[in-house]
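Operator note (shift B, R.M.): manual run for Penicillin-binding protein activator requested after the automated queue skipped it. Running by hand, logging everything below so the morning shift can see what happened. Input copied straight from the record, untouched. If output looks odd, do not overwrite the archive copy; leave it for review.
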Amino acid sequence: MIATVSRMRALSPSRWMAGLVALLAIAACSTTPEGPRGPVSPQPSSPVIGEAPPPATLPVPIADPAFTPVHMRGQADIARVAILLPFSADNEAARREATSILRAAELALFERAGENVLLLPKDTGGTAQGAREAARSALSDGAQLILGPLFSHSVEAVGSVARESSVPVIAFSTELSVAGDGVYLLSFPPGEEVRRIVNYTADLGTTRYAVIGPANEYGTTVAAAYRDAIAEQPGGARLVAEEVYSGGVQAMNEAATRLARMGVEPLDAEEAAQRSGRNWEPDETAPFQVILLPESGDRLRTLAPVLVYQDIDPLLIKFVGTGQWHDSATVREPALANGWFAGPDPQARARFEAAFERVFENTPSRLAGLGYDAGSLAALMAASGSQGFQASAIESEEGFLGVDGLFRFREDGTIERGLAVYTVRSGGFEVLEPAPAYFGEGRVLEDPAGPATDIDAAESF
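Run finished. Output pasted below as returned.
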């Protein structure tokens, strides 16, 4: 891990906790619920000193402009950060996700923020109108930065309101069309995962690619990103086959049959014995050398054997996927053994999950890490004063090292992530190629999740 020469002030648990206690009291009284630089990196999550944060609470209605709790009155440099989430959405899963993300953001601020950071939770209700009203409420309370919301329609609504006050938004949606003009997406867009796996296979000499996937929004998005990533490769890489299906196993089989007609030849026993999925190399005779399967769970476990049934053999043609493959169901399917996919670096994530479980006594959701990274970013920006919430700080070229590894924001508001390449084994997943520790020509960090050390021209969350 890296640390700045001029560190931010140490966290004062008692002062920060007093703020949380004050907010809970309000809720109880309410009637309504020089060379290239390295990336900015968080210090490793450590045991919480003093009293742990209380469980996440629903947002409280605050009517006073630039609301200031009693314990913070008199401070001139208060950094007000709003977090907008669907706490009262109709969908139960969305409500659980909102609580998990909020708790993670609270944990990040408790561990990393100075005494001047005030978190303002706001309920979007899971609707665009609710998000718009939540954004207006946040701005009336003096918010200088908005974290969230979660859904794309809500992000679009919040962005239109926040732009009127030139307040940046760091949202959690994967819908790229809502990014830009002050809206940044802290999420896991499938295009980043696809680009990573295409780059990895192209470096091994792959030139012919195929994809078979569902005729839905996710499948269409992934296929488009796949085409773009292949087109970026030097050496004449091509997408030679693209098949889609609507439905279950019969539709999958029909699409796989069309792929097999391209001239796929089954391996005989002797050829199969000479090959190993662990030391795969592109085969010059295969009509396509890599095939992308943008499915997950039981549907992925259905699709992979269908391909094998049509003699599309993973010993010859490498099966690859997206981060959705990071699921226990993937490991249980023999046809997916030795398949590859891209995903976040596991080291920092494991440390975050341990800290979250220790404090809140339950397991964080998959998206909770976004809340932690958003909270850490808010703490970092608040430590920089009034300049911290400007676009130049958010769009740092060096990027940041967060719970899910290296990331940075592009000028158009989309995110670029440094991802690892995983392979599927019988007992779980193994890292084939680690995630990069820096962008461009920055300093290599031997252990980005290790102990903090003093390195010039580097900062910490």
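Quick read of the result: Confidence is low (pLDDT under 50) at residues 1-37, 41-65, 442-461. The chain has two domains: 2-187+346-418, 190-343.
Leaving this for review. - R.M.
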